Amino acid sequence: MNAIVIAPICPLHAEPSRESTLLDEALCGMVVEILDESAPGWYRVRTHYRYEGMVPGSCLVIGDDLVNIWQSQPKQVVLHKNFCDVLSQPRVQGSRLATLPRGALVSPVGQPDKGWQLVRLADGRLGYVPAGILGAYHTQPLSREEGVLRKALTDAAMLYRGTHYRWGGKSPQGIDCSGLVSMAYLLCGIVIYRDADIREGFPIHEIPREQLQPGDLIFLPGHVMMYLGENRYCHSTGRAGDDGFAVNSFDPGAPDYREDLKLEEARAGSYFSYESSAFIGKL
């Protein structure tokens, strides 16, 4: 049995309790697989990127028929702003039906009109959003050109500038290190492992550190970062003073060098094949 996430941000907890550890967040419009009902009102689910956790039933609408209808509809993603209000009318004075974070999915109805797009939400309601906030929803890599895709990955990561650190977070409301890089890849149509590791069955593979290029990933024990080029990387860090998204340097002489990170232990990972400049992931 499958379900659609209808809450703007759906928490995945370690246990069927809102007080338990937050493992991940699914975003509105995503489809999850129901594994079992772990406790009254709580379901253990698996996301399409193969992550599991306990979610409140109030965040879901359950039913394969509903999921099939939703999946058959066109999609766009909230992309160009951190959040997007869905309004009852195509005017800023309309009443707010929902507020969706970057990464949430909507189904466009018709074409934009005077800057407004009518959309269908995952729960079936209709509302209006500024068309310029929406972007293309990619279920495959957005480009076959390596340079274009690398730039898109770093641009997507940089969208989360100013976001504070949240363990298990994956939205502009709060994001952790693997949430940042996995969302950057997801927005570009690539599903990678959600945690800070290179995991078999996902398209990131280890490469020599000296071959790092923009969009590649740098792994430390329990931490992951994205290489931006020119000896710099971005990440989401809980270190006091950073408290979230940060850009740092690999240069020990730079003022933003992180001496506390054991960079000599770092492993490098890439989606790309350096031998052929082709994708490791299959389209």
Structure description:
The structure is a single chain. The strands form six sheets. This protein has a six-stranded antiparallel sheet, covered by helices on one side. A five-stranded antiparallel sheet has the order 6-5-4-1-7. It has three domains: 71 residues, Roll (SH3 type barrels), CATH 2.30.30; 61 residues, SH3 Domains (SH3 type barrels), CATH 2.30.30.40; 125 residues, endopeptidase domain like (from Nostoc punctiforme) (endopeptidase fold (from Nostoc punctiforme)), CATH 3.90.1720. It is globular and about 55 Å long. The C terminus is likely disordered. The protein has three helices and 22 strands. The chain has 283 residues and is mainly beta. Helices cover 12% and strands 36% of the residues. A hairpin with a 5-residue loop joins strand 12 and strand 13.
Layout of helices and strands, plus pairs?
Layout: E1 2-5, E2 9-13, E3 22-27, E4 31-39, E5 42-47, E6 52-56, E7 60-62, H1 64-72, E8 76-78, E9 83-87, E10 96-101, E11 105-108, E12 116-120, E13 126-130, E14 134-136, H2 146-158, E15 170-171, E16 174-175, H3 177-187, E17 205-207, E18 217-220, E19 223-229, E20 232-237, E21 244-249, E22 267-270
Helix pairs in contact: 2-3
Can you tag this structure with a few keywords?
SH3 type barrels; five-stranded antiparallel sheet; six-stranded antiparallel sheet; 12% helix; 3 domains; 3 helices; endopeptidase fold (from Nostoc punctiforme); 283 residues; mainly beta; single chain; disordered C terminus; 22 strands
